[in-house]
């Protein structure tokens, strides 16, 4: 028997999201050798960090339906009363699916034109609202997400070919130049990493402590730019490798770490500093088990 349950958006306790995020932080803190949970309970200061206004009010309105023996959907349980709140038609704007109904092909074209001209998304949102006369356009965050989807995997055709041709030229000039890439299921460039000859030489001497930073998104494709950075004997930062990645998940980071370590002769650094992204912890533990992993400030 298969079934599905539809609930009001306000179901669950007001601090449900805060507790879920606090548990994630507590687990992350435990993995990195610090506190966060005492006697199985989440510390109060961790919960304080996650406090925010919530629409959750433990509303019990719901509908449960299942498939009968004939393959037809049948409503089996329903509760129409909304506890602790009264729904209003104006609240529809809080649901993304309703907001996106206003994301027409005309709005999309205007948004992309503004973005290509360098207009900030917030300003573009106001301009589109004025030009179209629409009151309930998607939010600024919705439009930022649409741009993100449009741009991040557009590295195809001329741009990707030009970049790979440049890497091949660099490698022809110096065989110690290293680059690696992988494609998605549709044959488009997905992730790419490169390390020049100077970086490989520097790592031999200054590879004790390495900082990995994946917080940059400055290119027009919205692909996060990650880099490995070390420090030389003059206290100067030195670049030890770069990457453009399509996703900031464990699989992608594992691929980047594996390729970078391979080009460095499988010599693990003594310590590696990263931000607090949970997606990095497992790949680092697997690919560089001997490196001491710490978070940077």
- Strand % is 15-25%
Largest sheet: 7 strands, mixed
Inertia-based shape: extended
Helical percentage? 25-40%
Mean pLDDT: 80
> Structural class of the secondary structure composition?
alpha+beta
Tally of DSSP β-strands = 12
Cα-based radius of gyration, to the nearest Å: 25 Å
Number of helices: 10
Kindly give the count of domains. Answer: 3
The secondary-structure element order is: EHEEHEEHHHHHEEHEEEHEHE
The first-to-last residue Cα distance is 51 Å
Unreliable sequence segments: 31-39, 42-47
Which strand order does the major sheet show? 6-7-10-9-8-11-12
Could you explain the architecture of this structure?
- The chain has three domains: 3-79, no CATH class; 89-151; 158-295, no CATH class.
- Residues 31-39 and 42-47 have low confidence and may be disordered.
- The protein is an alpha+beta fold and 297 residues long.
- β9 (225-231) and β10 form a beta hairpin.
- Helix content is 38%, strand content 22%.
- The strands form three sheets. The protein has a seven-stranded mixed sheet, with helices on both faces. A three-stranded antiparallel sheet has the order 1-4-5, with no helix packed on it.
- The protein has helices at residues 16-31, 44-49, 96-99, 105-116, 121-132, 140-151, 158-173, 197-206, 250-263, 278-287; strands at residues 3-7, 37-38, 41-42, 62-67, 73-79, 178-183, 189-195, 209-216, 225-231, 237-244, 271-274, 292-295.
């Amino acid at each position: 028997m298969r079934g599905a349950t539809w609930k009001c958006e306000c179901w669950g306790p007001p601090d449900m999201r805060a507790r879920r995020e606090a548990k994630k932080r507590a687990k992350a803190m435990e993995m990195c050798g610090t506190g966060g949970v005492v006697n199985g309970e989440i510390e109060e200061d961790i919960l304080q960090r996650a406090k925010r206004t919530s629409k959750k009010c433990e509303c019990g309105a719901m509908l449960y339906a299942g498939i009968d023996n004939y393959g037809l959907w049948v409503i089996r349980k329903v509760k129409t009363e909304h506890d602790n709140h009264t729904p209003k038609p104006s609240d529809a704007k809080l649901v993304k699916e309703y907001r996106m109904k206003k994301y027409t092909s005309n709005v999309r074209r205007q948004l992309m034109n503004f973005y290509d001209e360098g207009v900030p998304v917030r300003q573009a949102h106001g301009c589109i609202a004025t030009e179209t006369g629409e009151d309930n356009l998607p939010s600024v965050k919705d439009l930022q997400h649409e741009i993100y989807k449009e741009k991040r995997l557009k590295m195809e055709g001329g741009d990707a070919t030009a970049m790979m041709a440049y890497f091949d030229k660099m490698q022809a000039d110096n065989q110690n130049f290293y680059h690696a890439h992988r494609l998605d299921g549709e044959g488009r460039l997905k992730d790419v990493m490169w390390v020049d000859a100077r970086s490989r030489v520097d790592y031999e001497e200054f590879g004790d402590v390495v900082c990995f930073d994946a917080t940059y998104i400055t290119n027009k494709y919205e692909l996060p730019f990650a880099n490995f950075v070390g420090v030389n004997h003059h206290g100067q930062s030195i670049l030890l490798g770069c990457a453009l990645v399509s996703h900031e998940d464990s699989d992608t980071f594992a691929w980047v770490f594996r390729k970078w370590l391979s080009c460095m002769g499988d010599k693990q650094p003594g310590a590696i500093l990263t931000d607090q992204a949970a997606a990095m912890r497992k790949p680092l533990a697997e690919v560089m088990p001997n490196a001491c992993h710490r978070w940077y400030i």
